[in-house]
Amino acid sequence: MSETKRLIQASKWNEYHSWPPLGGLRHLIHHKDTNGFNKVVKKVGKCVLIDEEAFFKWVDDNQKNKELEND
What we know:
Helix content: 40-55%
Strand order of the largest sheet: 1-3-2
Number of domains: 1
Distance between the termini: 43 Å
Structural class: alpha+beta
Strand content: 15-25%
C-alpha cells in the first residue's frame, strides 16, 4: 500500500495548521528560491500547493541550521 502525500492549497493552510499565518506563508512562498522553500511548494497551473511533509522537514532543517550557527 502506497502512502500519498497531502498537498494543501496555500490559501487553505490555516484550516489544517495554525502556523504560519497566511501572510507568513505567502512571504515564504514569495522568497522560495532564496530560503529553500522551493522544496515545499508545488504549482499546478495557478494553484499553489504546500507539501505538508516537506514543510515540516523544512522547519526541522532550518531549526538545525540555526542551532549550528549559534554553536
